[in-house]
Amino acid sequence: MVARTIPSHANIRLLAKKNLGDLLEVLGRWGTVYAPVEKQPDVYTFAETTDLSAIALGYLRTALPPKRFMYPPEERLYNFTLSKGFEEPPQSEDRQILFGVHPCDIHAFSILDLVFAGPYPEPRYFKRRRRTAIIGLDCLPDVNCFCYSMDTDSVERGFDLFLTDIGEDYFVRVGSSWGEEVVRACKDLFTGLKEGSIEEYKRRADARSRMFESHVEMSDMPQIMELEFSNPLWEELGEKCLSCGSCSIVCPTCYCYDIIDQFDLKGDSGSRTRRWDSCLFKEFAQVAGFNFRQDRSTRVKLRYYHKQIAFVEEYGRSSCVGCGRCIETCPAKINIIEVLNEIRGKKVMSHAG
Amino acid sequence: MLAERIDARVDPHKPHLARLIRIDPMVKDHRLFQLRFEDPKLNDEFTHKPGQFVMLSVLGVGEIPVSLCSSPSRKGIMELMVRKVGRVTSALYALRENDFVGIRGPYGNGFPVDDMKGKDLVIVAGGLGTAPLRGLLWYCLDNRAEFGKIALLYGSRSTKDMLFRSEMESLLNRDDIQCLLSVEKLDDEEKDTWRGYTGLVTDLFRHLGEIGEDAYAAVCGPPVMYKYVLEELLNKGFDKNRILMSLERRMKCGIGKCAHCAIGYHSSVGYRYVCIHGPIFTYWDATNLPEMI
Predict the structure, then answer these.
(1) Which residues of chain B neighbour A262 with C-beta distances below 8 Å?
(2) I need a labelling partner for A222 at 20 to 30 A (CA). Which of A82, A211, B24, B117 fits?
(3) A86 beta partners
């Protein structure tokens, strides 16, 4: 049997796990590193750190998605004075590195890109996007993960480096010229592929895809939802939903916003602020004298239809990435996996837990 | 990556200072605001399509979408008709001539005036619905040779509720437009002088002359009006694709991002943002968008 030579892939490297701390330190010299840390038992957040011992490498999902690094919950758009009008406050130029971003959240950034581009591109978002590096990290699903159904369980682009655990090493995919620079600058930390690395990578990918317990069949979903526009389920969800907006806040692709103006105390100057909004809030479609979405059920329905039909039509895919945050967060226990399966007329598989 | 290719140097949210050069009280709680950008270059360059809107900022209070009710054929000054209904409009009413507001735009699709050229046009307005239609009306009259027959059907509650009354009545003297005006209730002192009809705007259809097969209709008015007006238009043989209506929704951005004005959903029409896909929609859109009217 001919021994198989190890193919050399320009965009694939190995990083020995013991070198990860050193890599973080190098990254810290380039910009501020934000990585997942356990803030409370089982509650994770992206926080500033380059300390490997503080980083929760095995985290599954952060409570809030990393969208806030590109699109903050609240941001001042302008300062104004009555005589000079609106002026943009200076924006930070600081470089930031998001370390340990999972595939679903990387996909979510690509989705936000589509939204903030469009006929009127949003400069603040794209400025942040360009001064942000993304180091992806693979993960193993729990019962609330359905990225496999949403075709977001793996990523081909949208990261600078992507780390997959293959035992002693991380299998590192280089996704940008910046990522390549990092690899070149840290020659000692990275090596080429070893015997069996690719096999191990494939074995892990297979094992991972078999771990998904929750599935939603997404083919024809827009058509099916259109047919189910009058399904009583929407009324039932309207009864259950508390209109708290938590699902929007934790959603990595929800982007609705409100704009709020305020005077300073002196009364001749002030500011205009943009703030995350939610389509579940009662005032969302309120105009003077009329509310186009008075009923909670029409608002819950809007959220589903926007993500599963409207977005598909406008951008070619659903804006849901299957991260499971809304399931984990909803105080009324509305479960998107169950809702979508019920709409399809499938018996809901119960995953109590 | 898309993020690297996007040219995002222009800030679409930034309003420009505009001066209120004239404020005319119209009927109760309706005022016509004439504005001009402070930057003369901007003022020269500003143009719009009839049916488009601007985002108007009252500094420190908020920003609202307002239909442009002036015609792009009359450049240099923009006119906005604003009804006092909420927080921002009340603050606008507290401003005086020469005060500043912020303006950005124009936004929205506007009326498809190029497609409408050479065809007959029926404009149906009720109440404040004249605001987005007035720009279209004057655009067509200022480019009269480019359009077929033009008819205006305008209904209001009484002569006191009529917007642009003298302007509308002056059209009665023109022979290049069929102007049909109606009021639901006519005051006694007007019995001998009123040159219009009494009744509902739908009653005016029986006076409407012969209309071409490929004619357009533009409709705007209170929600209660649509059902009956649309029925009349279908009876007259109008194509659903040529019945145009202007919609109103809550908007925070005007540029297809904040998602407040979303309406949906039917695969034949799709999901729409009133701000960038509208505010002008066809009746065909409306019959396929269950949330539209």
Answers:
(1) 60
(2) A211
(3) A80
Contact B1 A298 (CB under 8 A): no
**Which residues, in sequence order, are CB contacts of B45 under 8 Å at separation 6+?**
none
Q: Sign of the C-alpha dihedral, residues B105, A260, B2, A340?
A: negative
B187 and B274: one domain?
no
Using CA atoms, how far apart are residues B146 and A46, in angstroms rounded to an integer? 62
Sort out which chain B residues have CB atoms less than 8 A from A84's CB and list them: 17
- Percent of chain A exceeding pLDDT 90 equals 75
Q: Which residues pair with B78 in a beta bridge?
A: B35
Tokens of A172: 């590192």
Closest in A223, A261, A288 to B60, CB measured: A261
- Show the domain range for B75: 11-107
Closest CA–CA distance from residue A69 to any residue of chain B (Å): 14
Average model confidence (pLDDT) for chain A? 91
Which among A117, A158, A222 has the least Cβ separation from residue B267?
A: A222
Measured distance CA(A130)–CA(A93) in Å, rounded: 10
Q: Under an 8 A CB cutoff, do B257 and A257 touch?
A: yes
Sign of the dihedral through C-alpha A40, A44, A49, A52: positive
Same domain, B237 and B141: yes
B68 and B192 belong to one structural domain: no
Q: B266: which chain A residues are within 8 Å (Cβ-Cβ)? A: 226
The Cα–Cα gap between B236 and A67 comes to 53
Contact A252, A66 (CB under 8 A): yes
Please report the pLDDT score of residue A230 as a whole number. Answer: 86
The tokens for A127 are: 């400025």
Question: Quick one: pLDDT at residue B38?
Answer: 95
